[in-house]
Amino acid sequence: MQQQVVDKADSVRAGEELNVNAVHNWLKVHTHESNPAVAAAIRSSDTLPKVTQYSGGASNWTYCLEYQGSEQDHSQQTSLILRRAPAGTKAKGAHDMGREYRLQHALKPVYRYVPEMLGLCEDESIIGTEFYVMEKFTGVIPRKNLPRGLETTEQQTKQLCTNLLDSLIELHKVDYQKAGLDHLGKGAGYIERQISGWSARYSKAKTWNVPSGKKIMRWLENNMPANERICITHNDFRFDNVVLKPDNYTQIIGVLDWELATLGDPLMDLGNTLAYWVESDDDFLAQSTRRQPTHLPGMLTRKQVVAYYCKEMEIDVDDFTFYEVYGLFRLAGIAQQIYYRYHHKQTNNPAFKNFWIFIHYLMWRCNKAIKASGKR
Question: Are 217 and 199 in contact (CB under 8 A)?
């Protein structure tokens, strides 16, 4: 594989600079116990790390710290990832770096795709907020399109697709009680909490130019499955949150962005994943919002994904409509919260200008699925 297909960070955005001196001094003191080799590389470095920033994600800020090693030994190059909350006022419970760090630290021994945690700084005086540092996965992140120069056969693409699903299935099969992760969420009653929570969030963020969503909210409330399963759920499981092996891009080596992980229902987690799943023959509005390469020949369709997942998980689901509608409605809620900020001039990012059209489209998809199900 050519080097240019490996995912790289870019220059730091204006206003989001790190206090590199403060971070470096903290790392020298606090990384020894977690990883002596990394600590030694940091201490032996003659210069401060080179800092770059990842553009993906609209929530927490993510940086790459690159230590070049000493003048005598440049082979000791060490790359780390630093995650911190964004600047400004934060909603209660949002951007909890400690929770994200501790979750991954506990999950690492039982789920191989979690990066190694290297240190958590809860002292906000260091850079103005909590942050944590973790292992850097070097590989390919499949975004809207695969990187240039990365050619795929239909069979390889299908293998990549099933490997992605297998890594989600492996997460859902983790014994969270044995792993000591009972505290991740409230567990029982998850479905009801999600429906009431997203209904309230959408209604609160509603602007005049989007549907009320009341019919869909009522339908979800009236059609909640009686059978609820509880497992560790990622809740943002997509192609652009996984890292592929550099010399074999069909293999997953890492899963990123654990901010929303909790104890929840696995089929709802799958519904969240499929809300982003754009097929090659979907309409132009869906294609315009595609952010992962699910359109490629060889990718499973949404129906095939559900069938594969349920077979491997040994789950019988007569009708996936509830989970499909939930995933689409939740995505509409996420998009509407973002659009609300743009509509009320709390952000001027032009990328959000036409989100209201996307909200209409997602609601239309919900209503279409509801009508096809024949359930009231």
Answer: yes
Helix (H) or strand (E) holding 220: helix 214-222
Name beta bridge partners: 255: 242
What pLDDT does 95 receive? 66
| N- to C-terminal Cα separation, the chain | 52
DSSP 24-88: HHHHHHHSTTT-HHHHHHHHH-SSPPEEEE----SSSEEEEEEE---SS-GGG-EEEEEEEPPSS
- Residue-wise pLDDT for 83-116, tens only, equals 998 775 444 445 689 999 999 998 999 999 999 9
Answer whether 0.85 is exceeded by the pTM: yes
Strand blocks (E) in the chain: 50-53, 61-67, 78-84, 117-121, 131-135, 231-233, 242-245, 248-255, 262-264
Kindly state the average pLDDT of the residues 218-233: 96
Between the alpha carbon of residue 365 and those of residues 200, 222, 327, 335, the distances in Å are 20, 18, 11, 15
pLDDT band at 69 (very low <50, low <70, confident <90, very high): low
- Residue type at 212? S
Q: How many CB atoms are located within 10 Å of the residue 45 CB?
A: 21
- Nearest-angstrom CA–CA distance, 73 and 83: 28
Bridge partners of 277? none
Paired with 65 in beta bridges are 51, 80
Q: Which of the residue ranges 29-43, 85-99, 198-212, 249-263 would you say has the lowest mean pLDDT?
A: 85-99
C-alpha–C-alpha distance, residues 78 and 70, integer Å: 11
1, 246 in Cβ contact below 8 A?
yes
Handedness of CA 143, 88, 23, 97 (dihedral sign): negative
Pick from 47-61, 82-96, 184-198, 226-240: least confident: 82-96
Under 8 Å between Cβ of 42 and 31: yes
Choose between 32 and 35: higher pLDDT. Answer: 35
**276/255 Cα distance (integer angstroms):** 17
DSSP letter for each residue of 180-198: T-GGGS--TTHHHHHHHHH
Task: Report the DSSP beta bridge partners of residue 133.
Answer: 82, 119
